């Protein structure tokens, strides 16, 4: 496979290709050996960011100005994809909505939220039917190969994007902040026990290499798309970081909360009319089959699971105009 260089070759997957990722501080999309170190870099905002709600709608407008054809929201019914959908609709932008429906109602519990939301908003949607277990047996390996992905669940989104004619938008790329312990080392390189020292706990933006498989997929397909709506511009990322509730989180005003996942719905609900719901993946009824395929894929792509951490202090500094 020909390697693509993010930001220099291939389609523009974020605005002005501001989000770059690769290995050993070089923006190469595809891993070529297990020893490489996963790396990411974000562009600088060109203006002072608006509120998170306004930046979501501005991101939708930016995408609409760039895309000439139909915009498709790949809608799972989760809070991320619903926030994306509402961002377009409240910006006055019409979109098409694609919902993957698995054979034997495997994901009925999940897509019911998508159907409910679309009906309440009065927007049409289209089901794309998939025999999930057959797909995992017959086609999944080819999707994994071109994207270096070991997650059976992410491969389904790639399949869904192949079913539509137009520009896919994924409700991904949200800023995942996590509080982690910094373990200092002494002059001999030995880790020191600082588990009780609160000053060594810092908040980081977590960027997972496996999630970038969506980006690699569209690069391999040479297809224009938005694999990560919430990191499409530096401004939307900075607006999220500067949201008052997020600032309370990263300044440790939520007690022992260790991750922004715990308060993400509350953050979104400040800006959009989202109902509280269980957190589903859609794969709860096929966990054994998921684990079986995941084990097989990890034989080839287990090394594609590194995490890159950017401290919130550095992130603020790097994103600021």
Instruction: State the low-pLDDT regions, or none.
Output: 1-8, 191-200
Helix content: 25-40%
Alpha plus pi helix count: 12
Strand order of the largest sheet: 5-4-3-6
Assembly status: single chain
Round the mean pLDDT to the nearest integer and report it: 91
Order of helices and strands: EEHEHEHEHHHEEEHHHHHEH
What is the SS-derived class? alpha/beta
Number of beta strands: 9
Please report the distance between the alpha carbons of the first and last residues: 37 Å
Overall radius of gyration: 20 Å
Task: Name the overall outline.
Answer: globular
Structural overview:
This protein has 321 residues and is an alpha/beta fold. The N terminus is likely disordered. Helix content is 37%, strand content 14%. The strands form three sheets. A four-stranded parallel beta sheet has the order 5-4-3-6, sandwiched between helices. Strands 7-8-9 form a three-stranded antiparallel beta sheet. Strands 1-2 form a two-stranded antiparallel sheet. Strand 4, helix 3 and strand 5 form a beta-alpha-beta unit. It is globular and about 45 Å long. It is built from twelve helices and nine strands.
List the helices and strands and how they pair.
Blueprint lengths: L19 E4 L14 E4 L10 H15 L4 E4 L4 H12 L5 E7 L5 H14 L4 E5 L1 H7 L1 H8 L4 H11 L4 E4 L6 E5 L19 E8 L4 H9 L12 H8 L2 H7 L13 H6 L17 H15 L5 E5 H8 L2
Parallel strand pairs: 3-4, 3-6, 4-5
Antiparallel strand pairs: 1-2, 7-8, 8-9
